[in-house]
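Try this one yourself first.
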């Protein structure tokens, strides 16, 4: 078909239509607009044209606006498998291996995300263990932005698990000396300061050619600012978003994620880095670090009504 729509015939009869959503000299990106194949006659009879145009019109506001064709299932919830890498590899080399494997088609039906296949993040994190009130238990982490201010990342969970409620609040004008008071006075949280750390993360974006679901495969290295030898190295698999204007069964996201996780487990295991996934969180890592070395625990600020005092052990 002419213009920014194309059709593909299927052996069982009928045609699916695809709308072009990205335009480049070297390539283009299309998304499917028809839920079921349309028409079953010869293409030149054009009986497919009307249902194809109707399908396009039905999704026109998404197709004709930049990036509106992305949607997110499980909004407000993080879905994530984790692997603790031991022994820890050079995560740059490891991420390049993973990216090459995706480019080479080793994961059937998936490729690196179209023109968004790789990203680098290097940030500081100032994480607070949220110990109360009970409905708020989890953690709150302040992450400096490249411009000004901080992003506040909140996660709600009582134990490490696959699915966790997550919320990001950008643009906070809060200085590090006010992190604790902001959480206790503004948000009414009871918190325990954890050792700040820096996180270096390489993101490989994996896109399903069949469903349009996009999953992140992240390799990261977290080290404490006050003790750089205390390190956690992980590989994480997370559902990110879906490039689609059609509805999808949420269970399909989970089934596909399980399939990708099976492939990722095999990739990591064959290199001797990890054999089983876990849900080991940054909060657990920091708790264990402080349990082993109590002197790493930051000294709490002056107690506030919402934040009872905490005894800090003498350095050893």
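Now uncover the answer:
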């Amino acid at each position: 078909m002419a213009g920014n729509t194309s059709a593909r015939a299927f052996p069982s009869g009928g045609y699916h239509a695809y709308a072009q959503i990205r335009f480049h000299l070297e390539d283009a990106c299309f998304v499917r607009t028809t839920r079921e194949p349309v028409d079953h006659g010869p293409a030149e009879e054009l009986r497919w044209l009307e249902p194809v145009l109707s399908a396009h019109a039905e999704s026109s506001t998404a197709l004709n606006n930049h990036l509106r064709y992305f949607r997110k299932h499980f909004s407000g919830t993080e879905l994530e498998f984790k692997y603790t890498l031991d022994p820890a590899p050079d995560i740059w080399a490891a991420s390049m291996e993973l990216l090459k494997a995706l480019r080479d088609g080793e994961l059937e039906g998936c490729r690196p995300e179209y023109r968004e296949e790789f990203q680098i993040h290097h940030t500081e994190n100032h994480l607070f263990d949220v110990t109360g009130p009970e409905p708020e238990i989890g953690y709150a982490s302040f992450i400096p932005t490249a411009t000004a201010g901080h992003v506040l990342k909140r996660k709600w969970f009582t134990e490490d698990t696959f699915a966790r409620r997550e919320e990001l609040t950008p643009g906070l004008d809060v200085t590090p000396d006010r992190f604790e008071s902001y959480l206790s006075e503004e948000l009414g949280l009871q918190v325990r300061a954890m050792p700040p750390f820096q996180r270096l993360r390489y993101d490989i974006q994996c896109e399903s050619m069949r469903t349009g679901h996009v999953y992140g495969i992240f390799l990261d290295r977290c080290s404490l600012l006050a003790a750089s030898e205390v390190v956690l190295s992980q590989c994480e698999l997370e559902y990110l978003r879906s490039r689609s204007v059609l509805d999808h069964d949420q269970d399909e996201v989970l089934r596909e994620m399980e399939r990708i996780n099976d492939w990722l487990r095999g990739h990591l295991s064959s290199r001797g880095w990890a054999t089983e996934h876990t849900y080991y969180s940054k909060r657990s890592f920091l708790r264990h670090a402080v349990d082993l070395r109590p002197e790493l625990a930051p000294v709490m600020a002056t107690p506030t009504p919402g934040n009872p005092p905490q005894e800090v052990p003498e350095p050893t």
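Discussion: The chain is about 20% helix and 35% strand. Residues 302-306, 308-316 have pLDDT under 50 and may be disordered.
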